[in-house]
């Protein structure tokens, strides 16, 4: 598995099976597309607006965990 990021278009692509080619693509929603090989196996996931859909939610969770850790340490 490997990942690629297009910073110009803010698209993250996760190659689940880099040695296989996509035969079909199905959207999960407006920003997430899943690529399948000819046998119906997932070979990749494309995430549009990656900053909004991945980076921001992860950063928000991290900030929450750090705040809780600081509160516990201050007691």
Describe what you observe in this structure:
This protein is α+β, with helices and mostly antiparallel strands. It has one domain (2-74). The protein contains one helix and five strands. A hairpin with a 5-residue loop joins strand 4 (32-36) and strand 5. The longest helix has 25 residues, at 50-74. The N and C termini lie far apart (43 Å). The mean pLDDT is 92.
- Which regions have little confidence, pLDDT < 50, spanning 5+ residues? none
Instruction: Give the N-terminus to C-terminus distance in angstroms.
Output: 43 Å
Which strand order spans the largest sheet, edge to edge or round the barrel? 1-2-5-4-3
H/I helix tally: 1
Number of strands: 5
Counted up, domains total 1
Taken from the alpha-carbon principal axes, the silhouette is elongated
Radius of gyration: 17 Å
Q: How confident is the prediction overall: mean pLDDT?
A: 92
Oligomeric assembly: single chain
Beta-strand content estimate: 25-35%
Helices and strands, in order, run as: EEEEEH
User: What would you call the structural class?
Assistant: alpha+beta
Helicity level, as a percent range?
25-40%
Largest sheet: 5 strands, antiparallel
Q: Top keywords for this entry?
A:
75 residues; alpha+beta; five-stranded antiparallel β-sheet; elongated
Layout of secondary structure:
Blueprint: E1 2-6, E2 11-15, E3 24-27, E4 32-36, E5 42-48, H1 50-74
Antiparallel strand pairs: 1-2, 2-5, 3-4, 4-5
């Amino acid at each position: 598995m490997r990942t690629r990021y297009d910073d110009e278009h803010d698209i993250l692509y996760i190659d689940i099976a880099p040695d296989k080619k996509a035969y079909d693509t199905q959207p999960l929603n407006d920003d997430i597309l899943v690529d399948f090989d000819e046998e119906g196996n997932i070979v990749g996931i494309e995430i549009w607006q990656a900053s909004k859909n991945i980076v921001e939610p992860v950063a928000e969770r991290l900030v929450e965990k750090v705040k809780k850790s600081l509160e516990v340490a201050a007691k």
